[in-house]
């Protein structure tokens, strides 16, 4: 049966226990299709997750397959290492570029649903880490849909709900135990009238579907900035439509500002660890040179050795304490 509504759910850390509790609240007669992105490791299998969900719900649960018909009373889980999109009443399962460094990405699913179903979309953010799904909720709101977020105080990992609440005008913030009843109430209501779909979201949805993806396309709705994509090294464009600042490269990688900051932090930390390893190797070489030399030449190597030891100690202290301090500051800010 054709669904009246499309419910899209995004979750990450702590997601499976939350999903099993949520789907247990949904009846087989739900007049909506439920599409789920749970962040998975690339080499994991979603079949056992589908089997686990099936044991807790009357909905018919599937691992999503490309071009599968979307039906009411059914749940579709994104496969590992594939984006789940929806268009023209069918699922699209693609290996498109990562968004917020994830594939499957919550933002990709939410955008596709928003562009194609407008006010018939209900977006739900559950427990999880970092920022995926925040921009997606904003996409849904811009297209006339509704946004539901699990109460951060009720979430095992509150980062995803908290970030969504910080950036998006969410319609409902409820504990997990009440979300099922809320979804049943919302899907029983008459659909609101459609509103125009923003051109920038149409263009981004097309990029995710691999229809377009050139610098000329992104120039139409973004401004190129002196930053590089951490995934491919290409130029980035700043996208300021909506309430969530985002960045995108022309090959399709996309980031919220928070996700880009986190990705660049990881890249910087990895670079500094490589630098520390190279400095340690240089120290060992200088030590060997100093012990085998004589006179002034040996003294010079000893001086260089002392200097590099000082640099190594400073860099090691920064890596062991500085990055931890930054993480603590971020945690305190969210708290």
Automatic annotation (TrEMBL):
<dbReference type="InterPro" id="IPR035909">
    <property type="entry name" value="CheB_C"/>
</dbReference>
<feature type="active site">
    <location>
        <position position="132"/>
    </location>
</feature>
<keyword id="KW-0145">Chemotaxis</keyword>
<dbReference type="Pfam" id="PF01339">
    <property type="entry name" value="CheB_methylest"/>
</dbReference>
<keyword id="KW-0378">Hydrolase</keyword>
<feature type="domain" description="CheB-type methylesterase">
    <location>
        <begin position="1"/>
        <end position="190"/>
    </location>
</feature>
<feature type="active site">
    <location>
        <position position="12"/>
    </location>
</feature>
<dbReference type="InterPro" id="IPR011247">
    <property type="entry name" value="Chemotax_prot-Glu_Me-esterase"/>
</dbReference>
<feature type="active site">
    <location>
        <position position="39"/>
    </location>
</feature>
<protein>
    <recommendedName>
        <fullName>protein-glutamate methylesterase</fullName>
        <ecNumber>3.1.1.61</ecNumber>
    </recommendedName>
</protein>
<dbReference type="InterPro" id="IPR000673">
    <property type="entry name" value="Sig_transdc_resp-reg_Me-estase"/>
</dbReference>
């Amino acid at each position: 049966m054709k669904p009246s509504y499309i419910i899209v759910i995004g979750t990450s850390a702590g997601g499976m226990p939350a999903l099993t509790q949520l789907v247990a609240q949904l009846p087989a007669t739900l007049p909506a299709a439920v599409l789920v992105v749970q962040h998975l490791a690339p080499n994991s299998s979603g079949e056992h997750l589908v089997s686990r969900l099936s044991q807790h719900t009357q909905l018919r649960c599937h691992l999503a397959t490309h071009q599968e018909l979307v039906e009411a009373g059914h749940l579709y889980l994104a496969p590992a290492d594939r984006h789940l999109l929806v268009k023209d009443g069918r699922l699209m399962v693609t290996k498109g570029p990562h968004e917020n460094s994830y594939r499957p990405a919550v933002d990709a699913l939410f955008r596709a649903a928003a562009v194609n179903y407008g006010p018939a979309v209900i977006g739900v953010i559950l427990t999880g880490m970092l920022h995926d799904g925040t921009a997606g909720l904003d996409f849904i709101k811009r297209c006339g849909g509704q946004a539901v977020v699990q109460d951060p105080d009720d979430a095992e990992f509150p980062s995803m709900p908290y970030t969504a609440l910080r950036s998006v005008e969410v319609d409902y913030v409820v504990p997990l135990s009440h979300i099922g009843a809320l979804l049943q109430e919302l899907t029983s209501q008459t659909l609101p009238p459609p509103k125009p779909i923003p051109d920038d979201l149409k263009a981004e949805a097309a990029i995710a579907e691999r229809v377009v993806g050139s610098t000329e396309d992104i120039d139409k709705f973004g401004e190129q900035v002196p930053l590089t994509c951490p995934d491919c090294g290409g130029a980035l464009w700043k996208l300021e439509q909506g309430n969530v600042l985002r960045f995108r490269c022309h090959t399709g990688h996309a980031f919220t500002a928070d996700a880009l900051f986190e990705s660049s932090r990881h890249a910087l930390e990895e670079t500094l660890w490589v630098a520390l390893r190279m400095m340690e190797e240089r120290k060992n070489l200088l030590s060997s040179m100093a012990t085998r030399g004589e006179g002034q030449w040996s003294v010079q190597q000893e001086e260089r050795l002392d200097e590099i030891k000082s640099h190594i100690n400073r860099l090691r202290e920064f890596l062991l304490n500085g990055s931890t301090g930054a993480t603590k500051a971020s945690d305190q800010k969210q708290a």
